[in-house]
Specification:
With 428 residues, this protein is of the alpha+beta class. The chain has helices at residues 76-90, 127-130, 137-156, 183-189, 264-267, 275-290, 303-314, 319-324, 347-362, 369-382, 393-397, 400-414; strands spanning 33-34, 38-47, 50-57, 62-69, 104-110, 113-120, 123-126, 169-172, 196-197, 214-215, 235-237, 332-334, 337-338, 420-421, 426-427. Helix content is 31%, strand content 16%.
Length: 428
């Protein structure tokens, strides 16, 4: 008897259907209820280890987000975020507003196993979804400052996030009072769930209770990046599934996308990652928020491409790394010296191509030379090959670019003074 799992016809903008298996996703349908209080009304998103749903908390008469993990995912994220959330409740620091508050957590048993569930306030969308071209410069500055504050805050609590990328930074819901909307009004204001039937490639009927009859695309709660108003540009740093406390455990593998993965994950594989690994990814993300693409080339086909691009932009890598890099001779004649005739995308060229030129084409504000120089100084302090030589998160907040350009825009977003002490990252 064949033990091959059935194949399903492809459906755009939904989770992988073959993950509906033992240990995988929990099958959820619109109208399902959890804990006798949470009624599922729409899909918010999905990832490799979870699906995220918009639910009506009928006990509290408000909408919530429920992240339902795969059965083999385990409770670690819920435990980590719950500890962070407890610190947030007691904190007077502004940065605690930039992380999701845990409202409830529970497990749900289903045909694919036991699934951890995390309840938080709903958000609008990720920065990856919101960025339809460059953000207006004042918006990008505010988003960058808030993200740096969020990273500084979790570092102060003793955690490395471990998976910083644009898809894990969410925009908070704007002033619209979502809770006042009935389910019908919610659908009229945004859109209704559009059930797509799950169909096997071999056209056989669905027989496993672990596979849903229908799947759903996420609700559209977002606007293009150039339509976001400054008071609405409030972020939430989400997805703590790979977060860890470096004083209590070691982590050797980086889960961030290749374009923003810290180089020590490749060249120091026996040394545990540290807070500095977040700083590298944060620097790449700030660049992407300010521009239309990551700092590194988007056409990376493997680790050698990433390493070559890093050396092209930043110069020589540590000699001991260079000596162990087997792919160096394909692109370089010496450490930091490219082969003759090979086109090199320089730091300045990346800035012009990703940040300035797209703004000129749209007729929007570009950076002046003073701001550009301050940004370069900060980014170069974050994208340093050796982790120990990078700026800390609190030092990033103390840079000239943050203090003169980015933090003031974040203060306008929140309508309050954010007193940031670069030595402690304390923002009230």
């Amino acid at each position: 008897m064949s033990t091959d799992r059935p194949l399903y016809e492809h459906i755009d903008d939904v989770e992988r259907l073959d993950y509906y298996r033992r240990g995988g996703y929990h099958p959820i349908q619109i109208g399902d209820r959890f804990q006798e209080r949470y009624r599922i009304v729409h899909k918010l998103g999905y990832g490799s280890y979870s699906t995220i749903w918009l639910a009506r908390d009928e006990r509290m008469a408000k909408y919530v987000a429920i992240k339902v993990g795969t059965a083999d995912y385990g409770p670690k994220e819920a435990e980590t975020l719950s500890r962070i959330s407890a610190s947030m409740v007691e904190s007077r620091e502004f940065s605690s507003n930039l992380l999701p508050l845990v409202l409830d957590r529970f497990n749900v048993d289903g045909p694919n196993g036991t699934h951890p569930c995390l309840v938080t306030p709903p958000a609008r969308c990720s920065l990856a979804d919101a960025a339809q071209g460059p953000f207006p410069l004042h918006i990008a500055r505010s988003l960058s400052a808030q993200l740096a504050m969020a990273v500084a805050y979790i570092h102060k609590l003793g955690y490395v996030h471990g998976d910083l990328h644009m898809g894990n930074v969410l925009l908070q819901l704007p002033g619209l009072d979502l809770d006042r909307l009935s389910t019908k009004q919610l659908y009229d204001t945004f859109d209704s769930p559009d059930p797509e039937p799950v169909i096997r490639v071999d056209k056989q009927p669905l027989t496993s209770p672990g596979v849903p009859l229908y799947v759903y695309s996420p609700i559209w709660l977002r606007e293009p990046g150039d339509e976001i108003l400054l008071p609405e540009a409030k972020v939430l740093l989400a997805d703590f599934g790979t977060a860890f406390c470096p004083t209590q455990e070691s982590r050797f593998e980086s889960y961030t996308p290749l374009q923003i993965r810290p180089p020590e994950a490749r060249f120091e594989p026996t040394v545990s990652l540290s807070y500095a690994s977040d700083i590298w990814s944060l620097g790449c993300m700030i660049w992407a928020i300010l521009g239309v693409r990551p700092f590194l080339d988007t056409w990376l086909f493997g680790p050698d491409d990433a390493t070559a691009d890093q050396v092209d932009a930043l110069g020589q890598m540590p000699d001991e790394w260079w000596e162990t890099w087997e792919g160096r001779s394909k692109r370089f004649i010496a450490n930091g010296t490219p082969k003759e005739g090979r086109e090199v995308w320089t730091f300045n060229g990346r800035f012009e191509d990703a940040i300035q030129a797209p703004r000129r084409r749209r007729g929007t504000e570009v950076m002046c030379e003073e701001e550009r120089d301050a940004l370069f100084e900060m980014i170069r302090g974050m994208l340093v090959f050796r982790p120990r030589d990078r700026l800390s998160a609190s030092q990033v907040l103390g840079t000239q670019w943050m203090r003169k350009w980015a933090i003031p825009e974040a203060e306008t977003t929140w309508g309050r003074k954010l007193l940031c002490d670069s030595r402690s990252s304390r923002c009230l």
